[in-house]
Write a structure and sequence with these properties.
Order of helices and strands: HHHHHH
Distance between the termini: 34 Å
Radius of gyration: 14 Å
Oligomer: single chain
Strand content: under 5%
Length: about 140
């Protein structure tokens, strides 16, 4: 993802922030079904590419950050545009991605690119559920 994975400290957070920026730049909330298709397409590329680079870099290398991009896409599904929402989603996603509660860690153990991608997908789903709860109760 444009070399973000080569940043030594904070590459996951920078990649997730980049994912949120991309989402809002291409107006993901205004094109929800197109974004679902794009997200699953990128996730497929992520599973494949993660499996390939795992042979050289090892399992779930910190240089692989496409999983954070996909995780942020899941985090922002059907969330309205707004930088406040993006920042809250980023904070929640990074919490779930780093702490790995509620079965996220067990997905990380899956073989090849599946483990790399699916733990971030689940972190994104949890983030999205909390974002929608926030919108429901506080909007």
């Amino acid at each position: 993802m444009f070399g973000i994975g080569y940043i030594r400290k904070g590459s996951g957070t920078i990649a997730a922030a980049f994912g949120a920026l991309l989402w809002y730049t291409i107006k993901g909330a205004d094109q929800p079904y197109a974004m679902v298709i794009i997200t699953f397409f990128i996730a497929g590329i992520g599973v494949w590419s993660s499996s390939e680079v795992e042979k050289v870099w090892g399992h779930d290398s910190s240089r692989v950050v496409i999983d954070e991009i996909v995780g942020m896409c899941f985090s922002l599904f059907f969330i309205p545009h707004g930088w406040g929402y993006a920042i809250l989603a980023l904070a929640l996603f990074r919490f779930f991605d780093i702490v790995k509660p509620l079965f996220i860690r067990s997905l990380e153990a899956l073989k090849s690119g599946w483990g790399v991608m699916l733990d971030d997908v689940l972190a994104g789903i949890y983030t999205n559920l909390l974002m929608h709860a926030f919108l429901y109760f506080y909007r």
